[in-house]
Amino acid sequence: MTKPKSRADLIAALAEDLAPVRRVRPWEGAALIAIATLVAAIAASAMFTFWSGILTGEASPFFWIANGLLLLLGAASTAALVAGALPQVGARPNAPAWAFAMLGVLPLAALIQIARTPGAHRHEGLADPAAWHCLSSALATGLVVAIAAVLFLRRAAPVALARQAWLTGLAAGALGSLAFGITCPVDTIAHLGLWHVLPVPLAALAARVAVPSLIRW
């Protein structure tokens, strides 16, 4: 390659092989994650049966609080994820951290409840197969959301790969647990606070390890 004679020649040489591409818009990522969450919820309902108690008023206040916080965390993480999908300057939103802290109240409340009345919540302990079923199923549905997030990030140009990985895991864990939660009829604080919240940090840790290599330029 010959040395360019001017700055204009240098720019022309660098741009010679460039081809226009379709612009990546943040709302497309949010829509893709929302659709993936809906698909995960439909698949969970088809496999495990939608809990009719949600519509008939049987669900306890703990059910609505837990799933409301999961929805809040999922939405905040998704918004931060799609906002950081393109190079930019300025302050980064810390809403996901606050939403995760709010969700963290539930496991604390669950452990206090179990400690105060251990006999009443014996069936919700580590030996309960249904509890592990909730954990594994929530992680499985969250994988659908994570795949959607990774597909979007691969089309974008994220710079803070570690942060985007954490956000992917938080969104996938929260929305995956929410998607599966509509099939689970156990609505006590001890069950929801442990087995419907635990998928969130587990998904976040898994995403922190796996996602950066998948979205790196």
Brief synopsis:
With 217 residues, the protein is mainly alpha-helical. It has ten helices and no strands. It has helices at residues 7-15, 26-48, 53-56, 61-83, 95-103, 105-116, 129-155, 161-181, 189-195, 199-215.
Question: Can you give a write-up of this model?
Answer:
With 217 residues, this protein is an all-alpha fold. 70% of the residues lie in helices and 0% in strands. It has 10 helices and no strands. The chain has helices at residues 7-15, 26-48, 53-56, 61-83, 95-103, 105-116, 129-155, 161-181, 189-195, 199-215. Helix 4 runs antiparallel to helix 5, helix 7 (129-155) packs across helix 8 (161-181) and helix 8 crosses helix 10 (199-215). The two termini are 25 Å apart.
SSE map:
Layout: H1 7-15, H2 26-48, H3 53-56, H4 61-83, H5 95-103, H6 105-116, H7 129-155, H8 161-181, H9 189-195, H10 199-215
Helix pairs in contact: 2-4, 2-7, 2-8, 4-5, 4-8, 6-9, 7-8, 7-10, 8-10
